[in-house]
Amino acid sequence: MAKATSKTTAAERRIRQALQQATGEIDAALGAAQDLAFEAMEAGGAERLALAAKALAASPLCADAWSLLATEAPDGSPLGLSLWRQAVAAGEVAIGPLRMAEWQGEFWGIQETRPYMRARQGLALALRRQDMLAEAIDTLRGTLALNPNDNQGIRYILLDWLLEAGAIPEAAALHAAYEEDSSAAWHYAAALLAFRQGGAAAAQPALAAALANNPHVPGLLLGRRPMPAEDPEYYSPGDASEAAVYCQTGASGWRAAPGALDWLAAAAAPAEAAPPARPKRKPKA
């Protein structure tokens, strides 16, 4: 038995050496391809496609180049989804099995992982657009496990989709894992979670906290105010722009919860109707 173990260890060592050698060669070609992909990100139209193709000619493992092609495909098309899948596959091969295991939990913090992480997020969004919610959730779940620090903001989309799917225990666990988050998204998710778990009375304190955090969300969720014509590039906490960003994915969870929007409409009406507080005048000297 000891000899077998020794032989296995020696075989594994040779495989690791071969993988390390191959990884070094892959990285050399990938560096040139990645530079072209970055150029393509700054370009548009035919030039973008040409640069992406040139990047793939330099290295077919350039995940960002595949992602660029996917973003240019018709929205919701089978071609776009296939390209996103190819981007993820290319990124995983480029990183390699050794580094996939070594870097677990530290992805995005390591520069070489970012094209792969961008591809995973793009794939999840493409899956969701084609109503493949379960696979989209699973893709984001795996992405967040690779980078619990969540530089990409994956937790916001994942939480909204879990609420939409009715996966309340998992949604509650995810919410608790980032309990220090003070965003409108986390406050309104807390209110919806409390409503799903205990009803309107139990959820009232969480909703009051959410309204105090950002009062602009109910108007957008309930259709009383129109969503912006274009997605905000930036947002400020407590502002209408933050509310719009939350409602892009958060609205689906509210619509999926029976009675949630009616409860929100009734509970938010007094806050919306209340006149703004007038500044106090200084007493005359």
Low-confidence stretches: 273-285
User: What is the annotated CATH architecture of the largest domain?
Assistant: Alpha Horseshoe
- Quantity of strands, as a count: 0
**How much helicity do the residues have?**
over 70%
User: What's the domain count?
Assistant: 2
How far is the first residue's CA from the last residue's CA? 97 Å
Rg, Å, rounded: 24 Å
Q: Provide the CATH topology of the largest domain.
A: Serine Threonine Protein Phosphatase 5, Tetratricopeptide repeat
According to CATH, what is the class of the largest domain?
A: Mainly Alpha
Pfam family, one: ST7
Subcellular location: Membrane
Keywords: Membrane, Transmembrane, Transmembrane helix
Protein name: Tetratricopeptide repeat protein
Any overview of this molecule?
Pfam families: ST7. It is a multi-pass membrane protein. This protein is mainly alpha-helical and 285 residues long. It has two domains: 32-152, Serine Threonine Protein Phosphatase 5, Tetratricopeptide repeat, CATH 1.25.40; 181-270, no CATH class. Helix content is 73%, strand content 0%. It has helices spanning 2-42, 45-58, 63-72, 78-95, 97-102, 114-129, 133-146, 154-165, 168-177, 184-213, 217-221, 240-256, 260-273. Helix 3 (63-72) runs antiparallel to helix 4 (78-95) and helix 6 (114-129) packs antiparallel against helix 7. The longest helix has 41 residues, at 2-42. The termini are far apart. Residues 273-285 have low confidence and may be disordered.
